[in-house]
Structure formats: structure tokens, C-alpha cells
Amino acid sequence: MTRVSSPLPTEILSVSGLTRSVRDLLEHRYPLLWVAGEISNFVRAKSGHLYFSLKDEATQVRCVMFRNRGQYLDWEPREGLRVEVRALVTLYEARGDFQLNVESMRRAGQGALFEAFLKLRDKLDREGLFDAAGKKPLPPYPRCIGIVTSPQAAALRDVLSTLARRNPSIPVIVYPALVQGDGAAAQLAAAIAAAARRRECDVLILCRGGGSIEDLWAFNDEGLARAIHACAIPVVTGIGHETDFTIAEFVADQRAATPTAAAELASPARADLLAELRQLRLALQRQIQFTLDAKAQRVDTLAGRLQSPAERLATSAARLVAARSRLGAAFALATRDAEWHLSHAVRRLAAALPNLGVLRHEVAQLETALRRATPQRLAALGEHLARLSLGLGHLDPAAVLERGYAIARGPDGNLIRSSTGLRAGDPLELTFARGAATVRVEKPH
After folding, report:
1. What is the C-alpha separation between 40 and 122, in angstroms, rounded?
2. What is the value of pTM for the model shown?
3. What confidence tens digit (pLDDT) does each residue in 299-357 have?
4. DSSP state string for 153-181
5. What whole-number distance in Å separates Cα of residue 146 and Cα of residue 193?
6. Model confidence over 73-98: pLDDT tens digits?
């Protein structure tokens, strides 16, 4: 068998050069990536940097998260917590240790859970489960309050103590259900459906204490959201802390920041109700007293107007006499006024009528004058007509032609009044008193 030996390196590296080369190789081969594991050996240095190891069942790797990155964490990392880190694979040259430089860190599973939360939120929002128009108002005076939560939850004690403090006379019914873990969402939805079916309460409080997104995940269930939306009873949520938001709170008719605040929203304060009752009682007393005073004044007015039958008859008789006297005076005055108007109208009518005798005499005179003037006028008009006829006879062209004259017209039909312009051979049309003739010019003079 032939054995091939590896070539010896021609360059001798220093330890620093070797670690630097390995670091460059790692950083080039593995850019930023996500790594999941459990925190161990956690230390927060005075500088603010975080040092810990990330391990699983087989191995572990050192990690560092510098202060400028760790200051953005809104939760406190602790020993044994499963996390997911976004880190750069590198080498700490001073010790030659393989480590991860952590850029960001989140609790394990939170990214997937939050993504599922956003997806369900958007889906239900598109379906209209969050619309304000579909929210039911809370009853101002509930006769019974229901609570959907775990009987062992600290939130239940807070809600019960708040309800007892505000209005101990309102009965409370607890609909038990798990608020965390497997089957919690189904139990919560079933409890809400049972409360809606039994119709024992006027308002429901859905509550639990604070926790991580995993602890509150039952309240991000689609089935629970639809059960809240379908519930005919108004639902108030008090889940976790003020900064916690779940799908159930978006669907609920009203959201409170905490379970205690939810109890305050659902129950009217007994002191406020008593104060309101006192105000209503005072207003009612004032209204009753005002009505009694008005009725008493009305009685006094009617009593003053009340008379005996004899007095009423005497008063009516006096009114009748007075009315009869006024009526007689008015009738006499109206009669005198009518007589005056009638006499005045007769005088004006007499003044306006014409004298028929005078008019008949004038018509007779005009008729006589007309009979005399008509023959004279006709004779004068006949003489004038004769003179006009004689004058027209002298001017008549036919009469002139009867005396031996003739009318000459040129070829163009125009009258010839002078020999100027005539030439030998020109034809002329001569018109006589009777008949006509065509001649030619032999020699114009």
C-alpha cells in the first residue's frame, strides 16, 4: 500500500493569528442566525453586559449580549429560561473561546405565538368581530353579575372583593373554567356559552391575572373569540396587566386594564346609587309639593268664583237688562244712521238724473236742421262733381285724339316728343283716336 503524506505547512502562525483566522472564518461562514437553547450561568455585569451560556441536552456555547443591545429587552432573562437568540458566531480571541455575540433575544416560542396572534387578529378583524357597531352596552343597573375564571385564580378574589365593596347587594355567579394550559380555551368558551344559555346574569366578567404570552395564550383562541362574539350577554374582560392584549379583549364588548377595573366597570357603586336615589327623592318631594301648592291655589280660585243660585240668577238678570238696554240703543242708532244714508243717496240720485223734456226738445231741433241741410248739401256736392268731370274731360288723351291728334312711339315703345334723335328709316308706331299705324321716317327735321 502506498502511503501519501500530507504536505507540511510552509507558514507558521502565531496563536493570535490562528484565532483571528478562525474568527474570520466563522463570521464569514455563519452570518446572523437564530439559535434556541436554555439559559445557564447567567450574569449581568456592572457594565450592563449580559454573560450566559446557551445549552441543550448535548452541549453548550458561551454567549454575550452587550449593553447597547440588552437595554432594549422588556423582560428579565433568568436561569433555566428557554430562549431564542439572534447572534453572530465568533471567537473571543483573548481566550480562544467559541461564543455567540447576541444581537436580540426572545423567549422561546414567543415569535411563533406572536405571529399566530397577529394572523388570527387580522382574520377576525376582517370578519367584523372587532367592529364597535356590534358592541353591546353594559347595563347600568345589573341584577346579577357572572364571572368566568378559575376558582383558584387570584383574579377571582380581587373581583369578588371589589364587587363586595362597591355593591354587596348584587348576586354573583361564578362559571368555573381553566385559564391556562391544555383545554383552557375550550372550557372558557363552554362557560361563556353556558352563561348565555342560562340567562342568569346581566353582564359577564372574563378575567385572569397577568403572565407571559404563553400563560395568556388560552385567551387568544379562535373558538373563545367566537363564543364571546355570539354571547347575548355583554362581556367585560380584565385579563393580565394593562400592557397585555389578547384576542378575547378585542372581541369583548368592553376591555378593562385589570380584573379589578373590570369589576368596577360591571358594577355600579352602591354609594353612587344611594346618592342618586337621594337626589331623585328630593326632586320627587319638590315636584309633589309644587303640585299640591298649584292645586291648592286652583281650589282658592274656584272657591272665589263659586256663587249661590239666587246670586247667579240676580247677576244674570241684571246682565240681561243691561244687554237689552244696549241692544235698544244700538238699534235706534243704527236706524237713524240708515235713514240719513238713504236720504243722502236719494238727493244724489235726483241730482244725477237728466231733464228728459229739454233733451227731447233739443233732439227735435237737431232733426229739423238735419232735414233742411241734407238737400242743400247734396246739390252743392253735385255741382262740384260736374266741375271736376269737365276738367277731367279736357285732360283725357282720348278727347285730344278725337280732335285729330296722334301719339307717336319709337321702336322702344317710348313716346316721341321731338324729332331730335330720329333717323331716316326709323319705324314709328302712331296711335289714333281709333286704330293705329306703323310708319317710317323719311327725313327728320
Report:
1. 37
2. 0.46
3. 877 777 776 677 778 888 888 888 888 888 888 888 888 888 888 888 887 777 777 77
4. -HHHHHHHHHHHHH-TTS-EEEEE---SS
5. 12
6. 877 888 888 888 888 888 777 777 78
One-letter amino acid at 59 equals: T
In which region does residue 127 sit, left (phi positive, over 0), alpha (psi from -120 to 50) or beta (all else)?
alpha
Amino acid making up residue 156: L
Q: Selecting from 3.40.50.970, 2.40.50.140, 3.20.20.370, 3.30.420.40, what CATH number does the domain 16-108 have? A: 2.40.50.140
Strands 407-409 and 235-239, bridge-based pairing: unpaired
CA pair distance 149, 132, nearest whole angstrom = 25
Comparing 19-33, 91-105, 162-176, the range with the smallest average pLDDT is: 19-33
Instruction: Tell me the three cell numbers of residue 94.
Output: 483573548
Which burial class, exposed, middle or buried, applies to 229 when counting CB atoms under 10 A from its CB (0-12, 13-18, 19+)? Answer: middle
Identity of the amino acid at 312: R
Concatenate the DSSP letters of all residues of 41-74 into one string.
EEEE-TTS-EEEEEE-SS-EEEEEE-HHHHTT-S
Q: Could you confirm whether domain 115-272 is CATH 3.30.450.20? A: no
For residue 33, the SS3 value is strand
150 touches 208 (CB < 8 A): yes
Report yes or no: 204 and 192 within 8 Å, Cβ to Cβ: yes
